[in-house]
Amino acid sequence: MSELRILTPGLGAVSSTLMAGVMLARRGLGRPIGALTEYGELDGQPINDLVVALDDISFGAWDPFNETAYDVAKRSGVLTPEHLAAVADDLREISPKSAVFDETWVQALAGAPNTKTGDSYMDLVEQITDDIESYRRDGERLVMVWCGSTEAYHHPTPVHQSLTEFELGLKNSDSAIAPSQIYAYAAIRAGVPFANGAPNVTVDVPALEQMAEQYGVPIAGKDFKTGQTLLKTVIAPGLKSRRLGIRGWFSTNILGNRDGLVLDHPDNFRSKEITKLGVLDALLEPAKNPDLYGDLSHEVRINYYPPAGDNKEGWDNIDLVGWLDYPMQIKVNFLCRDSILAAPIVLDLARFLDMAKTAGNKGVQNWLGYYFKSPHPVEGEPTEHDLFVQERILLDEIRRMSAGLTTT
């Protein structure tokens, strides 16, 4: 199997942790725990046998700051000095290409120096396309996973409703088109599968969904399901299964990395809030269970706290109602490492999207909802949030694809 290059718009804590982790795992200096593609099985066969090997993975990136992967990893403080020293030379070889960046979408990073300029958004698309082709050498396959900052929330506009209107918008530099959508368009046009790891409105618009179908490219999203929401998709189905009522679920987070800085702005937090708030409604179905969940109060907060660095802390208070309406509570304190949880998700998504492209899949890959807070829906199909149901759906699709791949 030829090499797979994982391209990440955004060379930050998550992507540098992924890169270093793959390099360390190859040398036996760390275990890629958390990756289903490393530790999962399907009908007794390791899933690892069905996807590209770690030895055959390489990387490329774009970022508005011109730091090598080593510089980013050192600054982010996720990995120990010993781990970084072991792969320092390899990480230093990865430098980001200049990024498509507009500070109106990420105000906290205003003044970023390593950015592209052009006569129009379509000109920027052409520049990204040139970058993509420079990464595609010796028959390498490519996958793009958005690991950049959360963009300010904007509702889709008429420019997003059809591919014709979207392409006209690119030529006219329509201000409603986000930088992440410019990357997604360039990737799809180049035949590169795309996943959105942030809560941005990116490929989940009709124009890019149509384009992915037309070009035969798999797409997926959105917002990596890492810490607090991961636990919600485990705990809430269990409470629902026991028919326990829930009157309130209050969630707050402290986070000190660049993601926390960006989310400190209310417009960017709104994008994250939407993906976090939607999970419980989808899981608990209050309209179908009004006695148990009809008056649920669900609140989400994110607080920027620089001393925390990448070590995100999530607190949850859950107010339950049991037999005869007697109250109970659950308290959860998840001291997690944001990038340590996200890195294996990026690895799995890249491998599975590559597998999907090889199998001939195209358009929205909702079977990858296992990895996202807000799974990209397919019209006419239910969107599942229960983690264990999502895992079953994921494995069923891998089984289907692997059967087809082994017979060709």
Any overview of this molecule?
There is one protein chain. The protein is 41% helix and 17% strand. The longest helix is centred in the C-terminal third of the chain and has 22 residues, at 338-359. The protein has 408 residues and is an alpha/beta fold. β6, α9 and β7 (218-221) form a beta-alpha-beta unit. It has helices at 13-26, 36-39, 69-76, 81-86, 88-92, 121-135, 163-171, 179-189, 206-215, 228-241, 258-263, 266-284, 290-293, 338-359, 387-406, and strands at residues 4-9, 41-42, 45-46, 57-62, 141-146, 194-196, 218-221, 245-255, 297-304, 313-321, 327-335, 363-364. The protein has 15 helices and 12 strands.
Topology, element by element:
Layout: E1 4-9, H1 13-26, H2 36-39, E2 41-42, E3 45-46, E4 57-62, H3 69-76, H4 81-86, H5 88-92, H6 121-135, E5 141-146, H7 163-171, H8 179-189, E6 194-196, H9 206-215, E7 218-221, H10 228-241, E8 245-255, H11 258-263, H12 266-284, H13 290-293, E9 297-304, E10 313-321, E11 327-335, H14 338-359, E12 363-364, H15 387-406
Parallel strand pairs: 1-4, 1-5, 5-6, 6-7, 7-12, 8-9
Antiparallel strand pairs: 2-3, 8-10, 10-11
Helix pairs in contact: 1-3, 1-14, 6-7, 6-8, 7-9, 8-9, 10-12, 14-15
